[in-house]
Every structure is written in C-alpha cells, then in structure tokens.
Description:
18 helices; mainly alpha; globular; single chain
Amino acid sequence: MSPSLLLHPPGQLSPAAALYLSQQAPAVLQGSPSTVSSSPLSALFSEKESPELWLKYENLLLSCLRTGDEQAAHQCLERLVTRFGDDNERIMAFKGLLKEADAQQNGDLVRILNEYDQILSENDTNIPITKRRISLLRSMGRVSDAASSLVQLLEFSPTDAEAWSELSDIYLSQGLYAQAIYALEEVLVLAPNAWNIHARLGEMQYMAANATGASSGSYQQYMAEALKRFARSIELCDDYLRGYYGLKLVTNKLLQDSNKSNKQVDDDEFALPDVGTIERLNSLSTAKLSEIVRHSTAQDRGWRGYDPVEVAAARELLSSDAAAIER
C-alpha cells in the first residue's frame, strides 16, 4: 500500500480506495506503535513520534468508519486518546463521531446531541465539537438549525472556509441559489486559487440560471458568471475535468439559445462574449474532455487520477453532443 494513501484526506478518496485502506487496517495497526514515549531515553529504542503518524491514525479511523469497520476505528481512537488525552478538542470530536456511528436509533443521536450541548455550555469556543453538532443536526434532518448554527459559528470565526462551504451546501440543498453562491464566494475570498471551488461556483451559477422561475435577465447574468468561473477553473488547473465539463455544458447551452445570449446587460455586469468566442471555448472543452476520456479509459500513465464516475459523465456528454450533430 502506498504510504501517501494514508496521508490523503479520506473525504477525497474514492469508495474503492477507502475500502482498500480500511481492509489494510489490521496490518497498519500491527505495524505501527500503539504508544510513543516522550522520554528521551525511550525514544532511542523506539520509533520516533511524527505528525504523520497521528495523521495516519486519524485518516485510517475515518476510512474505517466510512466502510463500516468500527472495531478498527475504535483501535485508532484508543491510540489517539492515549497520546493526546480525553480533553483534547479534536479527540473529543472523534469520540463523538464514533458514538454517532454506534448509534442504533434516533434516541441515541438525541443523547449525543445533548452531550455536545453540555460540552459547549462549558466551552462555547470548542470548534471541533461545534462542527460535529452541526453535522449531526443536518443528518437528523434539522437543516434550519444546522444553518443557524453555522451562521453563529461564522460570526465567531469568519475565516473558516470549511464552514462557509458547508453553509453553501445547505443553502443549495434548499434551492436557495443566491445564498449558496454568496457563501461559496466567501470561500474564494479565503482561497482565491482553488480551481475546484471556482468550478463548483460555476455549477451553482448554471443551476441557478436554469432553475424554474429564473427571469431572462438573471438567466444571462448567471450563465455569464458560470462561464467565467469554469474558464478560471481550467486556467488554474489545465487538466481539471469538472472545469472542462462545466465549460462544455455552458457553451452548449449558450450556442443552443442564441436569443438569450445576445441580450444586453448593464455595464457593471459580466457580459457574455460573442458567438465566435463561445464556439472556440466549446471546441476547446470538447477536445480536452475527449483527451481526458481517451487516456483515462486506457489507464495511460499520468492519467489515472480521475474519478471513473466523472469520466463516464464526460463520455456521455460528448456522446450526446455527437448524436445531436448527426441529427
């Protein structure tokens, strides 16, 4: 197993990679120290402590929970508790996460939520527990409470990009496109070169443009912003599949709907480019998507990191485009 896999954020692993990682948990735990002494003398005869060791345990814990191996997850937690103690805020959040995973019914989740409330009543600046509480509220269907708690968290910590992203996702799930876009724009303020966030914002703009009830003016504005975001995404990362997919989707739509794309907007808004430019962007995205699909499908060296689901979606988009041209 590649050591880098254990240091990779679990949320970014594919289901197959997460399953593989959890299956290696017994070997990883057996080959890693269960405790690390802080004594200089003991350190001479045992493995040295490193941040990577504890990151490895955290990532393995999360991957095991993701695949249902709660026994291995508890073993990882025991080692983290031994090293950092029960009062460490991050450890408290991990303990809460395992309790949530062990919960058998809704009443168990309510008790865990009450425990979070008790912890926060004693220390309302415990950010890891605050985030676990928000996540639990959302999983219990209390979306409005989760959103309110996120707003309160952001008032205390306005530079928390993760919280802004979660708030944006909640708004999007409720069909509140303007609020979702605003929250994700705050993420870009904190991480202006995050090409994946630019593409995600483009996706939201595209959805808002095509939502039921969107006026012709808002349609053009949203489509113009979506085009800009996808273009910026591939400018920052020239092999980002989702960026090219979104660019292809938007330019297809604009070329199919020339009447809307030709309407004028105010000077302070992002105006759509001319049809010739849109056609060139469409050709660029088509060529790049075709290249990615071809090399990724063949498993060529240097093209193996793409999500198979995203590759399949790109292939379907290209096929539908080709079928439309034939008709």
